[in-house]
Design goal:
The complex is a heterodimer of chains A (about 325) and B (about 240). By secondary structure, chain A is α/β, with parallel strands linked by helices. In chain A, about 40% of the residues lie in helices and about 30% in strands. The radius of gyration of chain A is 24 Å and the shape is elongated. Chain B is globular, with a radius of gyration of 19 Å. Classes of the chains: A alpha/beta (about 325), B mainly alpha (about 240).
Chain lengths: ~325, ~240
Amino acid sequence: MIEVENLTKYYGNLAAIKDISFTVQEGEILGFLGPNAAGKTTTMRILTGFMPPSSGTARVAGFDVFEDSLEVRRRIGYMPETVPLYPEMTVSSYLNFVTRIRNVENRKEQIEDVMDTCDISHYADTLIGRLSKGYRQRVGLAQALVHDPQVLVLDEPTIGLDPKQIIEVRELVKSLGGDHTIILSTHILPEASQVCERLVIIDEGEVVAEGTPEMLTSRLQQTQRIFLQVQEAAPDVTTQLSRLEGVADVEEQGEGKYEIACALGTDRRAEISSLVVTRGWGLLELRPVGMSLEEIFLQLTAVEEEEQYEEEG
Amino acid sequence: MKNMIIIAQKELRAYFASSMAYVVIAAFLAITGFFFWLIVSLSREASLRGVFANMAITLLFVSPALTMRLLAEEQRSGTIELLLTLPVRDWQVVLGKFLASLAVFAVMLALTLYYPLVLLWLGNPDPGPIISGYIGLLLLGGAFLSVGLFTSSLSRNQVVGAVLGFGAMLILWLVDIAGRLLGPPVSDIVTYMSMSQHYFDFVRGIIDTKDVIFYLSVMAAFLLLSVQMLQLRRWR
């Protein structure tokens, strides 16, 4: 349903995203996960036709986002971060405006339905400017849903909501999967793993990992990988390394190269190097593998804890 | 076409919801009404010549107030992101907004139609220059509003948009004075570009297609520039 190929966007000389590629299947909920300023919003703005990419292509339902922008925009419901809305309009007049531009049939029914889904019916005649943050967020979701789009693009849909509202929005998004193809961006890992079927993790404008939440979390939570190369590949290197405390797994790659998995948060490089030196295997190289991904992971989980703490306090 | 009208309706609602339209219309009517009374009672002439000149100057101040919000506010509040990801073309957005400002302006002009009625009651005015004067005013207003819409696209700040708009309109209004200093052939070109020169033909009772085409071209040029500006903002 969504195909992104080598997407790159420069703001002046600064690359906001570099060579991003991923696909989303029909009916899938994809989590777009990354720390702040990783390039999530830029990617979504390109997908929704707000801005063109510097290079690369993106297709939604077979239409190029740049060449057939209007066709793409007809099929997408978009909820931008911070949900900018017209404060001088009432909820129903705003939804009326959106459905008229989008040429929705049975406008009245659709609007009533979507207000029901988003639980804003009792605010139909309230000015948007008077609504609380949480309700404005729901109006934002309502305008993205009101034309029953094939694709939903939600940029940080739970940001700034209270815990109860966060759970409600997550449930709502989950229930929309299947009928709709959804891309949801978030900087909170547990949220992504709760709601999404598949995750794309991006950092500093690049895709650093991709997979199901289970795959990614288990890979990330348990291990920290270290690359080792020795001059003399003695037959007992693997067994000796495995005996070290905190080493979970050793993978032999040939030519004296090994990849060692340790428990996350423990750095065994000192022990490994002293073992290699005392055995006289000849240490050529010792470095952490994919550290950045672990760092991102730690950052993402740390944010959730921090925010939970704020919410509780 | 349909999208353009939907956007125009939304803008019209915003004009009246924010009470901007009421304030601007009231100010315009108060100022021009005062000059109407002053000029007619001093000259004792059943004509709107002087009043038309005054209305044009008042328009210089009033038009930026009508247009300053149109594109600047969408950019400041971020609503432009949702507007431009709806299935509408950029020119439909620009034209819709322009039509809304033109509609408010037309209402404003319609409310001054009691001036000629008063003249008709007091004396025996020549209807020709009054009709052509109103046509000229409508065209001049349209040109001013297109300039203001364009300057509103330049900044997120409404006030910046308004000041730039006022400056641009004033220069376009007075540019023929500079022409006089420069001498031909530059003066011919500069005089042709002046908004005031074309306007006073209408006030004198002349409807010249050249003047009509001039104002329509000004509108087309600034509306096109606004669309370009909107597209440029996407590229950044």
